[in-house]
């Protein structure tokens, strides 16, 4: 699988990659890898969900997506009644940095016109797994608040 799949990007006929893959799945009965959900560690499921909730409110500066600010994260946490611990904040920020990295091309220019699709970016998933391996040993799996 390609490290970055743009399932929401339409071709010249207005058909997205997601639509083409779903048609293939219907015809063949085989689900393409790009349509499978990521393998998120159970201890990180809440972080994966938090990240994509934050992503829905992401702003941009006209040149592409802006990184999550501390104010963005704080507002989201207060609105959702969450109290992220320092290690969770570090992972969210690292996931954000990876999301921004994969959304820009080799020249550093943003590909802001292309929709991000949760669960389809192996670089983010790989980075997430690596970061989850660095969580404190005393953290309970799936515990979302401190």
From TrEMBL:
<dbReference type="Pfam" id="PF23812">
    <property type="entry name" value="Phage_TAC_18"/>
</dbReference>
<protein>
    <submittedName>
        <fullName>Uncharacterized protein</fullName>
    </submittedName>
</protein>
<feature type="compositionally biased region" description="Basic and acidic residues">
    <location>
        <begin position="8"/>
        <end position="28"/>
    </location>
</feature>
<dbReference type="InterPro" id="IPR056919">
    <property type="entry name" value="Phage_TAC_18"/>
</dbReference>
<feature type="region of interest" description="Disordered">
    <location>
        <begin position="1"/>
        <end position="39"/>
    </location>
</feature>
């Amino acid at each position: 699988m390609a490290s970055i799949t743009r399932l929401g990007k339409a071709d010249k006929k207005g058909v997205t990659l997601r639509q083409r893959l779903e048609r293939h799945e219907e015809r063949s009965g085989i689900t393409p890898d790009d349509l499978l959900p990521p393998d998120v560690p159970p201890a990180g499921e809440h972080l994966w969900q938090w990240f994509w909730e934050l992503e829905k409110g992401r702003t941009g500066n006209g040149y592409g997506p802006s990184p999550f600010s501390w104010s963005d994260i704080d507002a989201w946490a207060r609105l959702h009644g969450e109290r992220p611990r320092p290690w969770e904040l570090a992972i969210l920020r690292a996931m954000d940095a990876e999301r921004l990295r994969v959304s820009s091309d080799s020249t550093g220019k943003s590909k802001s016109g292309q929709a991000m699709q949760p669960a389809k970016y192996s670089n983010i998933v790989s980075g997430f797994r690596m970061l989850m391996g660095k969580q404190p040993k005393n953290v309970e799996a799936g515990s979302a608040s401190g």
